[in-house]
Amino acid sequence: MPSIRLVVVPTGSLAASAVLAALAASTALAQPAQFQVNGVPDFSQNHNAAWRNYCAPVAAADWVYWFAGTYPSLRQGNPVGPGVAADNGVDSIVGGVPPAAGSLAQLMGTTPNGGTTLAGCANGLDQYLEANDGVAGNVNWTTTTLLRANFAAPSGQNFLTALQAALSNGSGVILAVAWPAGAPGGYETPDPYDPTNDNGAMGHALALTGYNNANLTINVNDPADNLNGVHNWPGQNLMANLIQGPNGLPNFLSINIGGVRGDIYGAVVTTPIPTPAGAIALLGPAAVVAIRRRRR
Question: Where on the phi/psi map is residue 105: left (φ > 0), alpha (ψ -120 to 50), or beta?
Answer without folding.
Answer: alpha
